[in-house]
Amino acid sequence: MNRTLFRTRIKFCGLTRPGDVRLASELGVDAIGFVFAPKSPRRVEAEEARAMRHALAPLVDAVALFMDNPVEEVREVIRHVRPSLLQFHGGEDDAFCRGFGLPYMKAVAMGDPNAGNALDLHRRYPTASGFLFDSHAEGEAGGSGRAFDWSRVPTGMHKPFMLAGGLTPDNVFDAICATLPWGVDVSSGIETAPGLKDGDKMRHFVEQVRRADCHND
Ligand SMILES: O=C(O)c1ccccc1N[C@@H]1O[C@H](COP(=O)(O)O)[C@@H](O)[C@H]1O
């Protein structure tokens, strides 16, 4: 892909407070994520996410994150929150993910030594809008703050991919230069505690992504 004029997309995930949603919008992030994965310390209920969605500025996407949630629960979230994109972190297959009539992104567990190659991922998830490479092992939750070896990002990806897992303001510049992702997704690296985002870290993260974009021109 020609990177001239390219802008790495930024997603802040696991927000639980309207003030953090407002600041994320002001900092110019492209999307924010609400976590509905069971047992996540960042999990919010559909009603809470709906209220936070009202704090979101126009042209900023709301992403709903699931991990093997029952179909009824996914439907309920969609009805309340109206996300523009779904993100699946569990063992969901393509039929499940596309069944809600919304674009979706499939997370790939890079902590698994057999994480799929590009061909395999495109074949298993033909209707995915994109993929998200995260550090967890298959069946484990994300949001661990742990990075993986970026050289393992599959080559030959035809669809956009996001890089995630242990990104911080201090390493995101190197991560982008190493993998040239469509976007980056961060949760722990901009927090003081799970679900509580830190304004300075959020700002610093965005600055470092912009710096990488200038560097890669
Ligand atoms: O954030 C969570 O609690 C979570 C739970 C279950 C699946 C995914 C989860 N978060 C996603 O994990 C990655 C990386 O997070 P981190 O930056 O390493 O903390 C990111 O995509 C989160 O959205």
From TrEMBL:
The catalysed reaction is:
N-(5-phospho-beta-D-ribosyl)anthranilate = 1-(2-carboxyphenylamino)-1-deoxy-D-ribulose 5-phosphate
A Pfam family hit: PRAI
Domain N-(5'phosphoribosyl) anthranilate isomerase (PRAI) stretches: 11-208
Q: Sorted alphabetically, which Gene3D superfamilies does this protein's record hold?
A: Aldolase class I (3.20.20.70)
Is tRNA-binding a UniProt keyword of this protein? no
TM stretches of this protein? none
- Please state the pathway this protein functions in, per its UniProt record: Amino-acid biosynthesis; L-tryptophan biosynthesis; L-tryptophan from chorismate: step 3/5
Q: What EC number(s) has UniProt assigned to this enzyme?
A: 5.3.1.24
Q: Which GO terms describe its molecular function?
A: phosphoribosylanthranilate isomerase activity
Q: Which domain of life is it from?
A: Bacteria
Top EC class, one word: isomerase
Q: Tell me which UniProt keywords the record has, alphabetically.
A: Amino-acid biosynthesis, Aromatic amino acid biosynthesis, Isomerase, Tryptophan biosynthesis
Which CDD domains does the UniProt entry name for this protein?
PRAI
Task: Identify its protein family.
Answer: Belongs to the TrpF family.
- What's the protein name? N-(5'-phosphoribosyl)anthranilate isomerase
- Tell me what organism the protein belongs to: Lysobacter koreensis
Lineage, uppermost ranks: Bacteria, Pseudomonadati, Pseudomonadota, Gammaproteobacteria, Lysobacterales
Gene it is expressed from:
trpF
